[in-house]
Amino acid sequence: MTHDAVSSADHTSPDVAAFLRDGRAHLGLELGSTRIKAALVDDAGAVLGTGSHAWENEFAEDNWTYSLEAAWDGIRDCYADLVRDVRERHHVELTQLASIGISAMMHGYLALDADGEQLTPFRTWRNTYTADAAALLSRTFGLNIPLRWSVSHLLHAILGGEEHVGRIDFLTTLSGYVHRRLTGRRVLGVGDASGMFPIAPEGDAYDPTLLARFAALDEAADLPWSLAEILPEVLVAGQDAGSLTAEGAALLDPTGALRPGAVAAPPEGDAGTGMVATQAVDPRTGNVSAGTSAFAMVVLEGPLSGPREEIDLVTTPSGDPVAMIHTNNCTTDLDAWLGLFSRFAELIGRPVDAEELYGALFGAGAEGESDAGGVLSYNYVSGEHQTGVPSGRPLLVREQEARFTLENFMRSQLYGAFGALAVGMEALLKDEGVQLDVMYAHGGIFRTKGVAQQVLADALATPVAVGESAGEGGAWGMALLAAYASGASGDESTVSLSEYLARQVFASQKLTTLQPEEAGMSGHATWLEGYRAGLQVERLAGEVLG
After folding, report:
1. Above 80 in pLDDT, residue 482?
2. Which end of the chain is more exposed for a tag (fewer CB within 10 A), N or C?
3. Could you read off the pLDDT of 8-32 as tens digits, one per residue?
4. Taking Cα atoms as reference points, which of 208, 280, 218, 222 lies closest to residue 498?
5. The CA-based dihedral angle spanning residues 185, 190, 193, 197, taken in that order and rounded to the nearest 10 degrees
6. Model pLDDT, residue 306
């Protein structure tokens, strides 16, 4: 169980106990790539309890997926963990919530029939077999439509003549699916919806012109439904997304202790909750979320020069335009290497816990040469669209005269975690000239203070700020959206999400900001040049190592 968050009410006061007993707390639940997390907060975002459940995707029949049974098992276990934490911290049984919000991995493909039954295994954002469909949509729409977007997966199924397509009644994301089961509402927050289908310039609905273009495709001519009919309704932060039903409460808490009635926030994707958790919702701010995948979100001041393959156009939870740089790979291979070192420590009879291991090895990476001594790391567990790698194979390569030390190895691993992201960000910051005052960062890789943060600042040539929530941002961000939806800001109809976050949540947050360093920027540029050149080897590895 994890208990590190922005501000924590660990020392129970009568007021906190009464707050919980009165059912005034706000719950955020996020289904991430490797963990399902819960955060319970008060109106100002102070954490009253947390819960966690570990899970993993599986590769079955050439498809990255999670079973919905595993999702519900994990949700229930995570909620039970939260209830235990609240009981231990505050000596209160959790029976009522003021509000609830569901977040999950963006994009992917979850198709249901008229009875709400799953028509095909959940196809996650990690699958890259939709290239032909995405290319056709990009040409048709005049926009970059990523491989992982729901509409790309849908057109892929149509082009493949998959039998289930004609029986689709509802197409949604993982957060939208869970929200529907808990509330009965077929809705989606605009941030998550923007990873299903392009959003109109007004930021509150799907683009009607592009819906018409999809309907005019020859491939869509004989479909028994229109796309607008099967997509969830788009909502912006603070809008009515229903409430927790009796059936939903029983799904979440089979003990029967949890009562229905909690106000539900529009369900969001992990990109949106990352923006909220880092207060990166205003122009010239951005955030990086680093986990199994990595993405950078930059809130735009104006339009880009035109469509680019490296850049997705999505929105904040309030509907403001955002440029997104997404990579399929980030920390998985790094974690695997550190697992190897952990096993070595066990074999020599000197086991170390994870925090100590990561701290020591990240510290070694900080001492490595700024160009990593000629050591290159490709963390591609799956394909990587940012760098044109269709099928990933984790790869460690070094020049013949490379300085292969532990310090340089770890420096290369840290560079590699953000390698594809750095390639995409060059297109946004250098080619498009987008202005960025600060990049907020969160995710487990930043829990070792200062190391990955400095690496990222040097890689992006941008100041990087990390707050106290850096290790556990997503569920907390969703809890803040739930609080905002319930009226915790005082009057959500007049107070914007940005104002609520600035005045009520982040006014007292401690941030640590690191500036890019000349030596680090120069060394990373040299490393990235070698990284780009070596991509041919990575592509060949995917072709040869079946």
Report:
1. yes
2. C
3. 444 445 699 999 999 999 999 999 9
4. 280
5. 130
6. 87
Q: Give me the pLDDT at residue 11, please.
A: 43
Q: Which residues pair with 512 in a beta bridge?
A: 466
pLDDT band at 34 (very low <50, low <70, confident <90, very high): confident
83-125 pLDDT, tens digit each: 999 999 999 999 999 999 999 998 899 999 999 999 999 999 8
CATH number where 75 lies = 3.30.420
The number of folded domains in the chain is 2
* Residue found under tokens 């001519």: 221
Which residues are CB-contacts of 55 (< 8 A; sequence separation ≥ 6)? 34, 35, 36, 66, 70, 71, 74
CB-neighbour burial class of residue 73 (10 A; exposed 0-12, middle 13-18, buried 19+): middle
Residue 500 lies in a domain: yes
Q: CA–CA separation, 360 vs 347, rounded Å?
A: 18
Report the alpha-carbon distance of residue 472 to residue 108 in Å, rounded. 23
- Give me the domain span that covers residue 247: 1-104+242-277+472-515
Claim to verify: residue 373 and residue 505 sit in the same structural domain: no
pTM here? 0.83
- Which amino acid, residue 366? A
Which 8-state DSSP code applies to residue 250? H
d(CA 27, CA 42): 9
